């Protein structure tokens, strides 16, 4: 739509109401600056390679209408491109499922990409596991940060080693640098089995199903009937994102 000489795109569906004050100034949460008012219809298709060929910025904004500005689309794409297997493995339908599955889980972890840091913070230091020499730096806390809510010193050390960033001594980087934050999410997704038996990436690419991604990320607390409401929340995200990307599920959604 146009308003006072500017162009705006609706962030979510709503019915126009004369006199309701639903203009971009009165209701900024409903509108994003910019857009094409010449023809209407569907948004332009994604362009580029990797995740950018599957997920357009407009669809990303539709998925996360209330997201924190920290979680930018540009940082998401830049981070994903450093993990060559992500959103490039298998046919187009498989690639769409992987993008939907990853985003569905991180949406659940962050309240729709609203939270950068865990609400209930604690030190989360345990030196009984993790890479060699991975202790806890003095005064540093290793609570959940970023889209996957990276937690515990062992994971910060392992992710930092893989990414070439000193996250042991500076875990706050995950909450300060958007590209690093996204990269920790892709690191976990493509390389870690967590509480499961396979990575999130392999669960989707090999057809095991979305449920196995839940098991990998938080299966010890949610799967096998431990917290069905949390599992269903993730599944609801996945189903909605699949619809936005024009794909359907394969394998079991639940765990």
From TrEMBL:
**Gene3D superfamilies found in the cross-reference section:** 1.10.530.10, Carbohydrate-binding module superfamily 5/12, Endochitinase, domain 2
What domain of life does the native source organism fall in?
Answer: Bacteria
Record's InterPro entries? CBM5/12, CBM_sf_5/12, Glyco_hydro_19, Glyco_hydro_19_cat, Lysozyme-like_dom_sf
Q: Which Pfam families match?
A: CBM_5_12 (PF02839), Glyco_hydro_19 (PF00182)
The Glycoside hydrolase family 19 catalytic domain, residue ranges = 67-255
Annotated Chitin-binding type-3 domain residues: 2-32
| Keyword terms of this UniProt record | Disulfide bond, Hydrolase, Plant defense
Q: What CDD domains does the database record attribute to this sequence? A: ChiA1_BD, chitinase_GH19
Q: What is this protein called?
A: Chitinase
